[in-house]
Amino acid sequence: MVKISDLRMREVINVLNGKKLGLIKDIEIDLEAGRIRSVVLPGNGRVFSFMGRSDDVVIPWHKIKKLGLDVILVELSDYADTTHNAVY
Length: 88
Known about the structure:
CATH topology: SH3 type barrels
Distance between the termini: 26 Å
Mean pLDDT: 81
Oligomer: single chain
Largest sheet: 4 strands, mixed
Order of helices and strands: HEEEEEEE
Radius of gyration: 12 Å
Shape: globular
Number of domains: 1
Strand order of the largest sheet: 2-1-7-6
Low-confidence stretches: 46-53, 81-85
CATH superfamily: PRC-barrel domain
CATH architecture: Roll
């Protein structure tokens, strides 16, 4: 079992390019389905937006490939492309 507070302490890393994306700022939960919908990282000057969060990077749960003890590995092929409004 993993606590949300534990997830927030793990570095998020993109497995496609090895970039450190930061720590989880928030988590979106689908209450009706009872599951995590996405994780939210603080933006760092890029223009991402999803539901009005222009500075945040929203990573859908299906993009998370592995929850390690120290890191969370995600697969984001379009992270560096600032023409997208969100990371899918």
